[in-house]
């Protein structure tokens, strides 16, 4: 049924870069057989999924939305891919994304535009717009994204779906092609909080093949989602972040957020305002740290090891082939960030830019720690506005960056957060998301409060 749905509408929406019809049908059949034999490998056995094209797969190309990887096949599965397979979850295909996960609208994909199912003239969010559009249009009931600065939560917000950025170090980055290694985290996406929790449980866990993976038990997110669905939040303390509201937030987004606060109070929660003074510097710090890591990580695309090779006709030196391949294979946003990062890490600029940004990062983590000493979770709108029109911000990177204002601090601190649908905006009838944030290894709190809010 999902493959039929993809055939019916993905020509218009452009969520998938690759559909693995035969492979997913074979996996579904294997799951059915296991269930019939009373050996279901997981609660989600047989439930298909859309996988962001940044996780390696041995049976489908992995492009990361970039021309530089066109046609490249990975010799190994990412840990997340392997866990999905082991749980009997058929992979429908690979979803469109901003090139190497850099972007907020999926318009930086080298391959195609993805449209928001709620209004096909608008962006589906980014960088994981393909996964969110697939979910919102019922092409897939589950999806996987990655969140480096908001790329799971922000697409979830603008498509009225649920997306979770788990605690850093709890979902393996092995086989997740790196954007910024200290910020990247894979995570689950669904249409309900419980679906998302079931998927979270499948993909999380310690992995010795990821040096930043943490060897600590994953909280019981499924139990928390079930407990939350009873709708009782008495005793829960929720902080509203003072710095994540005010100028620049659309009236409809503000109205939805105020309604959410009232609803959470009605469910028994206590709401207080919390000051996180360094959040105002999150955007500046993020856009130095991320490009710095990008400039280092993307050096591996040297025309020798993976994918595209331009000028390999015997008349050019290795250096020339490398330069020509990168010039042709990387898009403008990726080049912009490689240049910013290379500059920020250069000896004359390092202390003033990269070093300073790392100090700000610590101060943001301290703001969170101080806040969580008093409250269980923090909340804010997920995005300051509803989804903008395709093409509206492509020539204005700064305004594109501002769309992620509310989601970035969590990545800098390595903590956990969810976006849960928060109704439609009174301004334009488009989806609005509520962001719920929790301390490291407090992912279960997101599910409890998200499920209570959703119910
Ligand atoms: N939009 C942000 C950026 O462009 C976040 C991307 C992400 O989370 N992968 O960097």
From TrEMBL:
It catalyses: L-glutamyl-tRNA(Gln) + L-glutamine + ATP + H2O = L-glutaminyl-tRNA(Gln) + L-glutamate + ADP + phosphate + H(+). GO terms for cellular component: glutamyl-tRNA(Gln) amidotransferase complex. InterPro entries: Amidase (IPR000120), Amidase_CS (IPR020556), Amidase_dom (IPR023631), AS_sf (IPR036928), GatA (IPR004412). It comes from Gordonia phthalatica. One of its GO terms (molecular function) is glutaminyl-tRNA synthase (glutamine-hydrolyzing) activity. The keyword Transferase applies. Its EC number is 6.3.5.7. Coiled coil: none annotated. Belongs to the amidase family. GatA subfamily. This is Glutamyl-tRNA(Gln) amidotransferase subunit A. The keyword tRNA-binding does not apply. Heterotrimer of A, B and C subunits. It comes from the Bacteria. The active site is at residues 52, 127, 151. Allows the formation of correctly charged Gln-tRNA(Gln) through the transamidation of misacylated Glu-tRNA(Gln) in organisms which lack glutaminyl-tRNA synthetase. The reaction takes place in the presence of glutamine and ATP through an activated gamma-phospho-Glu-tRNA(Gln). Keywords: ATP-binding, Ligase, Nucleotide-binding, Protein biosynthesis, Transferase. GO terms for biological process: translation. Residues 1-446 form the Amidase domain.
């Amino acid at each position: 049924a999902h493959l039929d749905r993809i055939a019916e509408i993905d020509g218009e929406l452009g969520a998938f870069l690759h559909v693995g019809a035969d492979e997913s049908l074979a996996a579904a059949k294997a799951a059915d057989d296991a269930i019939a034999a009373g050996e279901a490998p997981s609660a989600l056995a047989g439930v298909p999924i859309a996988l962001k094209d940044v996780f390696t797969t041995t049976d489908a190309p992995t492009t990361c939305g970039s021309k530089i990887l066109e046609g490249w096949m990975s010799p190994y599965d990412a840990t997340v891919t392997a866990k999905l397979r082991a749980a009997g979850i058929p992979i429908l295909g690979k979803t469109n994304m901003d090139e190497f996960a850099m972007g907020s609208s999926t318009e930086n994909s080298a391959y195609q535009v993805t449209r928001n199912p709620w209004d096909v003239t608008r962006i589906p969010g980014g960088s994981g717009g393909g996964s969110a559009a697939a979910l919102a249009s019922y092409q897939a009931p589950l999806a996987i994204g990655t969140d480096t600065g908001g790329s799971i939560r922000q697409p979830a917000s603008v498509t009225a779906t649920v997306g979770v950025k788990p605690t850093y170090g709890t979902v393996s980055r092995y086989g997740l092609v790196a954007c910024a290694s200290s910020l990247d985290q894979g995570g689950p996406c669904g249409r309900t909080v419980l679906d998302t929790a079931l998927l979270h449980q499948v993909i999380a866990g310690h992995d010795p093949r990821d040096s930043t993976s943490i060897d600590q038990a994953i909280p019981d997110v499924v139990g928390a989602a079930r407990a939350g669905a009873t709708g009782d939040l008495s005793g829960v303390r929720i902080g509203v972040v003072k710095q994540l509201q005010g100028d620049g937030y659309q009236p409809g987004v503000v109205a939805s957020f105020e309604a959410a606060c009232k609803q959470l109070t009605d469910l028994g929660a206590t709401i207080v305002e919390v000051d996180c003074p360094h959040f105002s510097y999150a955007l500046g710090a993020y856009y130095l740290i991320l490009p710095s890591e990008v400039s280092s990580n993307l050096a591996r695309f040297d025309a020798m090891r993976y994918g595209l090779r331009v000028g390999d006709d015997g008349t050019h030196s290795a250096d020339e082939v490398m330069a020509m391949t990168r010039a042709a294979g990387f898009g403008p946003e990726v080049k912009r960030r490689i240049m910013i990062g290379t500059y920020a890490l250069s000896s004359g600029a390092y202390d003033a830019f990269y070093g300073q940004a790392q100090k700000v990062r610590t101060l943001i983590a301290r703001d969170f720690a101080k806040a969580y000493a008093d409250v269980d979770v923090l909340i804010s709108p997920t995005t300051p506005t509803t989804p903008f029109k395709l093409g509206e911000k492509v020539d204005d990177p700064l305004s594109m960056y501002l769309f992620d204002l509310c989601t970035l601090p969590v990545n800098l601190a390595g903590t956990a957060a969810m976006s849960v649908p928060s109704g439609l905006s009174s301004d334009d009838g488009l989806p609005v998301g509520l962001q719920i944030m929790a301390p490291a290894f407090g992912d279960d709190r997101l599910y409890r409060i998200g499920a209570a809010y959703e119910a």
